[in-house]
Amino acid sequence: MAVHLHQNDLPGGLDLGPAVAVDTETMGLAHGRDRLCLVQLSAGDGDAHLVQIAPGQRDAPGLRALLEDTKTLKLFHFARFDLCALRAGLSIVCAPVYCTRTASRLARTYSDKHGLKELCRELLGVDISKQQQASDWGAAVLTPEQQAYAAGDVLHLHALKEKLDAMLAREGRAGLAQACFDFLPHRAALDLAGWAGEDIFAH
Ligand code: MN
């Protein structure tokens, strides 16, 4: 595994393939208050690219080109949060997307545990650490522990997608899952527009 650290944007000419795993780290959970600090990406080849976003930075053209490219599928775990962070921080409207958490909610109805750690353990037999989850992602220099943690969050999403897709197909829910993935960018837009706490489909 190699971790590549980049400042402000992805370098030009980097090809991450037809499906790229993406994750973000922020200062906290409130979009608008808590800035976007880090965007992690992986082609699913065991390598990770970490892009540090500076305070006050509002654009990243290379990142935007990749994340808005309709021919590249972006894989997330809990896409709803990351889509909001990318939109609020860099005005990136990311699509098309796949979400391993949403896929798990639809496929693994025998469980109420849909965290990344749980999915990696059950479906891949891989133990990932969540120890650095709450740490200062706004620091100018990330610790080796933070870098390893941040990379770990994008290294298994391709393998998880393969397992979850098989389960969704088996249970006849692939179409429903796709419809949910297609709606996710709009769900994020609703969150940022003031409907974060509400189910607009409820009576
Ligand atoms: Mn993460």
What is the share of helical residues?
40-55%
Radius of gyration: 16 Å
Total helices: the number is: 7
CATH superfamily: Ribonuclease H-like superfamily/Ribonuclease H
Q: Strand-residue fraction?
A: 15-25%
Class from secondary-structure proportions? alpha/beta
Give the low-pLDDT segments: none
**SSE run:** EEEEHEHEHHHHH
Mean pLDDT rating: 96
Number of domains: 1
Largest sheet: 6 strands, mixed
Second rung of CATH, namely the architecture: 2-Layer Sandwich
Fold blueprint:
Layout: E1 3-7, E2 19-26, E3 36-42, E4 48-52, H1 61-67, E5 73-76, H2 79-90, E6 97-99, H3 100-107, H4 116-124, H5 144-155, H6 157-170, H7 174-195
Parallel strand pairs: 1-4, 2-5, 5-6
Antiparallel strand pairs: 2-3, 3-4
Bound molecules: manganese (II) ion.
Sum up the structure in keywords.
globular; 7 helices; 6-stranded mixed sheet; 6 strands; single chain; binds manganese (II) ion; 203 residues; alpha/beta; Nucleotidyltransferase, domain 5
Describe the structure.
Helices cover 41% and strands 16% of the residues. With 203 residues, it is an alpha/beta fold. It has a single domain, classed as 2-Layer Sandwich (Nucleotidyltransferase, domain 5), CATH 3.30.420.10. The chain has a 6-stranded mixed sheet with strand order 1-4-3-2-5-6. Strand 3 and strand 4 form a beta hairpin. The mean pLDDT is 96. The structure holds manganese (II) ion (MN). Manganese (II) ion binds at residues 23, 25, 153. Residues 23, 25, 153 line the site of manganese (II) ion.
